[in-house]
Fold these 3 entries.
Entry 1:
Amino acid sequence: MLIDTHCHLDHPRFDNDRADVIARARGAGLHHMITIGCDLKSSRRALDLAKTHTALYATVGIHPHDAQEAMPDHDEALKALSAHPKCVAIGECGLDFYYDNSPRTEQEDVFRRQIRLAHDVALPLVIHVRDAWERFFAILDEEGVPERGGVVHCFTGTQDNADESLKRGLHLSIPGVLTFKNPGDLPEVVKTMPADRFFVETDSPFLAPIPHRGKRNEPSFVVAVAQKVAELRDTTYDAVAAQTTANANAFFRL
């Protein structure tokens, strides 16, 4: 019993064996996987996948890397996609000032538009933040956290970043980075975060956890993330699996 709350199953790296990847995840005990939209095309692909697999749900959104490609009419297109019952959130959206693949002003504009969309359609946000915490919190405070809340996906920030996120009612999604040799503040964050405010994810095909480093990541590998969380929180894998499944079910209304 486990849920991978963030994967990219529409990615070309899964084109040759997508069905097998999903089957392995189910065999590893995953009840559901949430496949994430990063632009209009991938949002459509994610939702199409979710429509054809009972274990899959989808999100629709514009990643900060793709913000400069987001046209004004994309907002209405995303809104239309979000009406499908298999769509459970808006995003992946947010700010990435590390790569700066899109101009920061455009990242901020597109992020604001998606926060407003989440308010409008009553869905939670799936948020990407990298090297942009101050602007992220400022924009979120100005626009208001959507009623359904939000999750900082692939959380790898500091304890202060975690505290500020939790203070705003956000959830934290813990990635395979937790298993790396240099995970930063993440182990301490994991030890102290509230039991009802976190999920586990793979972000596959990226960031494969130990012992799968160097391989293409896939949803079944989320088991390794949950095992590490259990170790750090001095509890059992089954307890973490049950807790994160309950958290995800409630947050995404699966």
Entry 2:
Amino acid sequence: MTDQLRINKFFTQHGICSRREADRLIESGRVTINQRVACLGDQVGPHDVIARDGQVIPWGTASLYIKYYKPIGVTTTSESHVPRNIIAEIGHPERIFPIGRLDKDSSGLILLTNDGDIVNEILRTEHGHEREYEVSVDHPFDQSFMDRLAQGVVILDRQTKPCRIERLGPARFRIILTEGRNRQIRRMCQVLGYRVLTLHRVRIMHIMLDGLVSGEWKTLTGEECTKLFHAVGRGSSPGQHNS
């Protein structure tokens, strides 16, 4: 891969902001390249000195992969003005951002990274990466409820993909999805006349919530990272995320 990339992609790959926000920063004259005010579309490489508001953003930061037990009430956003945003709650010294979302009123496992390239590789629906949840609803359900969820129901004008369901109690179940649409499980249950009371994610792909307490985060182990890179077609090494 070439060492050159567009200036807005540099910002996303370093976990600073979205490309759209990067473009706004550039258009407002807040970004410099080698002390020259940056322009939209500029190409940069590791030899360039990039700064935002005069603060240099270093190249070559080691890639970080973190799992976090998100409590209810924490919002999955990098926007610093949002109360109890996930970045402030974790307080990591490096710039990181969440991979995907977990609703404010849900709890459990979410991954964070400073590796902008891996995000879409994990989230792309066609890869079929599993996400496992434990869910409770407002009244007991029968087998037909489980069968209909497993087959897929229509939400947001499109049918959900087939999924796996296991009963955990009269009004509790485990569900394994291979897609992550907006408030998907809550909407699926609502279509069938049920309201979700609690929603807790316990697994993303091979990465488990086990060993974490609410509000705690840990760096992924070497084994977890190796399996992750293999699952997204990277082999066994993350390399640098600056290209």
Entry 3:
Amino acid sequence: MDLAIQGKWALVCAASKGLGKGCAQALVREGVHVVITARGEEALEKTAAELRQLNPAVQVRTVAGDIGQAEARAAALAACPHIDILVNNAGGPPPGDFRDWDRDTWLAALDLNMLTPIELMKKVIGPMAERGFGRIINITSMSVKAPIDILGLSNGARSGLTGFVAGLSRSAEFASRNVTINNMLPGMFDTDRLQKTLMEWASKAGQPLEQVAQARRRASPAHRFGTAEEFGSVCAFLCSAHASYINGQNILLDGGAYPGTF
């Protein structure tokens, strides 16, 4: 299927590895020019080189820095001639016991996982509406739908973003001009983030890491963890011309692990 987004420009945050990289790869395959960001410059440039090899016809630009900082956001926005597609993504806050978190810890989580995506949306959504095309994807977490006990910071911050998007996406000012905003809720995907969470669970349970990992795999009907590549493919479709009637949705990708009906 031709997704009809060749030649568009995308800003993909936290794209040097993991789910962000999977999204960037899928978009580049479709002929989308990308600006990718990450804190680690070496890993970012390595990924950029891989993306250029994947599709030499597209432009791949890099901006190293913490997207949670205003200067890094400004640099990322400036690196694009315009932004047709925005993929908001950032490393999740650490797991732990909420009794150990002070106010500053909470504010840091809210700033990175709620306020930063909102700031980026604020900058791009108006021009998207003027051009008559815009796709905004927020990578959140399955914890928005099925909270995870040790991920309280993520549960709270990402749920706040989800509530905000629920209202903004339904504004006729933007939806009527072919601008959509959707959230992707990853379950257990084979990323560095998952490895850290598994280690936390293993430590808490006093069990070997591989035993805990195998139990989590078995908890999914798919009996495996997801891959960044398949996550990216869904992202690319949601960014396509064919997804213009999908708006304000929380797309859960968890291999069927969520036990509810709705």
